[in-house]
Write a structure and sequence with these properties.
Blueprint: E1 11-14, H1 30-43, E2 47-51, H2 57-66, E3 75-81, H3 93-100, E4 105-111, H4 114-121, H5 125-141, E5 145-151, H6 153-159, H7 161-173, E6 178-183, H8 190-200, E7 206-210, H9 217-227, E8 231-234, H10 248-258, H11 272-283, E9 300-301, H12 304-312, E10 330-331, H13 339-347, H14 358-372, H15 381-392, E11 400-409, E12 418-427, E13 430-438, H16 441-457, E14 466-475, E15 487-495, E16 500-507, H17 510-533
Parallel strand pairs: 1-2, 1-8, 2-3, 3-4, 4-5, 5-6, 6-7, 7-8, 9-10
Antiparallel strand pairs: 11-12, 12-13, 14-15, 15-16
Length: about 550
């Protein structure tokens, strides 16, 4: 079902645009859906289940526009159900919409659990078998590749195994190209999945569609493959109803790196982290930091002994090389991090730095002093790099804030609250003053600062930089409780759409702490661009 030069052992179907769109908090626009499809195609996903045109007009419009997408690897699949009871397949308007999409494949779900047939669908067991068979035969006669999703298969197999298997036989006898076993309620354990796959695989090509309600979706998908399934469905980041679907960003590298089963075209696995971040950005949600393989914390090390061991032997505390999935190793900078971790981070700026280098000792001492004052760098990679540059003498300020003011107005009655910021900066002896309005004081300050800097750095794309996360925490002094007069620590995450970095600021004034973090964020961005374009300038 794939191009011959992309032969794989396990076929992947991503349903981010269908099942993933049913996730709480996820809402894809038409352009979002097209962007996700391009991203999945770039990653090498062979099948994209792109929507349910019978229930969503936007999905039908997507299929129309998608005909002009220059997809290199992926093929599109439309999703729907078997015909309704009491009418023929040819009379069912929803089946007609599946054909009208022009998609070369369709996935149709039918009932595998006798309880659902009689109590939910309100049909007889024999009529349900006819609905499955007639639907698939109708679609096959019209030249479609048909994937049959056995809804609630595992629950049905436990309740009435002979009938659950009959539903699969009906689909295969009618010409289904794949039978996909669905753990629709997401409550089964891997041993049940394995037993169910073993019971069904003698009938034909078997796939797995697992939900994560028992936090088992990835494990169940892997168990299904080990039992003989050769088709795996999921969503790249685990989006889906309730607790979500199997996260393909975790399943795919497990297949490739643990089981030596190819599921992507050669050379594509290293693009997994980048693709995951692009899909998350499109969906306007963060990648879970502790997500296996591709999360920011997946290869993060804080303890000094761990960092030292990693530098001596990578596999001592890492199960794979993070570069294989396009991720990076992170040594979290803290008072328990140790000199080895500090030296490793500093070597990215100056390869001559070692664990015994004087700068390493200076940074370790400085780090402990700052943490005692409330600073924390383990989640602020951008601010820590600037700290290292200062210690190494590889830093010069690109701009200076001479003065700033932030005003919040909250009129009574029906008046609309407004926030304004004014800032004066100096760049190479030149002054620039700018003002901006924002949705809050930090947003207003951010806009004013970038507006002031843009005349000097417009070719550095700083207008693309935006805050993707903002966190504030009160820093308590040992033995004291300063309440509203205490210091606060502000951690912001910034992105330019391609890269993400974090910076930190600490002050007794929350706006000034935000100002410090914002300045670090913009300096980090500017220095990164300069280093890429003019290596060694700093």
């Amino acid at each position: 079902m794939q191009n011959q030069n992309e032969t794989v052992d396990i076929e992947i179907l991503d349903t981010t645009l269908r099942d993933g769109a049913q996730s709480t908090g996820i809402s894809f626009s038409l352009q979002d859906k097209l962007a996700v499809a391009r991203t999945l195609d770039d990653l090498g996903i062979p099948w994209i289940e792109a929507g349910n045109p019978g229930s969503n007009p936007k999905d039908m419009e997507f299929f129309r526009l998608a005909q002009s997408l220059p997809l290199k690897h992926a093929r599109l699949c439309a999703f729907g159900s078997t015909r309704k009871k009491g009418i023929s397949a040819a009379e069912d308007p929803y089946l007609k919409t599946l054909l009208d999409t022009g998609a070369e494949a369709v996935a149709v779900f039918g009932k595998s659990w006798d309880f659902h047939v009689t109590e939910v669908l309100g049909a007889s067991l024999e009529e349900n078998l006819a609905m499955i068979a007639e639907t698939i035969a109708y679609l096959k006669e019209r030249g479609r590749i048909v994937l049959y999703d056995g809804e609630h298969f595992f629950d049905g197999w436990k309740a009435n195994p002979s009938y659950a298997l009959k539903t699969l036989e009906a689909a295969l006898d009618a010409g289904a190209d794949r039978i996909v076993l669905c753990d629709t309620n997401g409550g089964n354990f891997p041993d049940t999945i394995s037993e169910g796959v073993c019971a069904a695989k003698g009938l034909g090509a078997v796939g797995i569609h697992a939900h994560n309600d028992a936090d088992m979706a990835s494990a169940c998908s892997i168990a299904a493959v080990q039992a003989g399934a050769r088709h795996v469905q999921g969503t790249l980041l685990g989006f889906g109803e309730r607790c979500g679907n199997a996260a393909l960003a975790a399943v795919i590298p497990s297949l490739e790196l643990k089981l030596s089963l190819r599921s992507l075209p050669p050379g594509k696995l290293s693009g997994l982290s980048g693709a995951s971040r692009r899909v998350a950005e499109i969906a306007n949600v963060p990648v879970p930091e502790r997500m296996p393989y591709i999360g920011n914390h997946a290869f993060s090390h804080k303890a000094g002994m761990h960092a030292d061991a990693i530098l001596k032997a990578r596999h001592s505390f890492e199960h794979i090389d993070p570069a294989l999935v396009g991720n990076d190793r992170h040594f979290l900078m803290s008072e328990v991090g140790g000199r080895a971790a500090i030296a490793e981070r500093a070597r990215k700026i100056d390869p001559a730095v070692t664990k015994d280098h004087p700068v390493t000792a200076e940074l370790a001492s400085r780090l402990k002093a700052l943490e005692a004052e409330g600073w924390q760098f383990e989640g602020a990679d951008g601010s820590f790099e600037l700290l290292v540059r200062r210690a190494l003498g590889k830093y010069r300020p690109l701009f200076k804030i001479d003065a700033y003011r932030v005003v919040s107005e909250h009129p009574g009655g029906d008046g609309i609250a407004c926030c304004y910021a004014w800032v004066k900066v100096w760049v190479d002896g030149q002054k620039e003053i700018a003002a901006a309005e924002g949705r809050g004081p930090v947003n207003a300050l951010d806009r004013a600062l970038r507006k002031a800097l843009n005349p000097f750095f417009y070719h550095f794309d700083i207008e693309k930089v935006r805050l993707s996360d903002y966190k504030v925490r009160v820093v308590e002094k040992a033995g004291g409780n300063d309440a509203t007069a205490a210091k606060v620590r502000v951690l912001i995450e910034s992105t330019d759409g391609a890269h993400t970095w974090s910076t930190v600021g600490v002050s007794e004034d929350i706006i000034d702490a935000s100002r410090a973090a914002l300045v670090d964020a913009l300096e980090y961005k500017l220095i990164s661009v300069i280093e890429r374009r003019f290596k060694g300038l700093f």
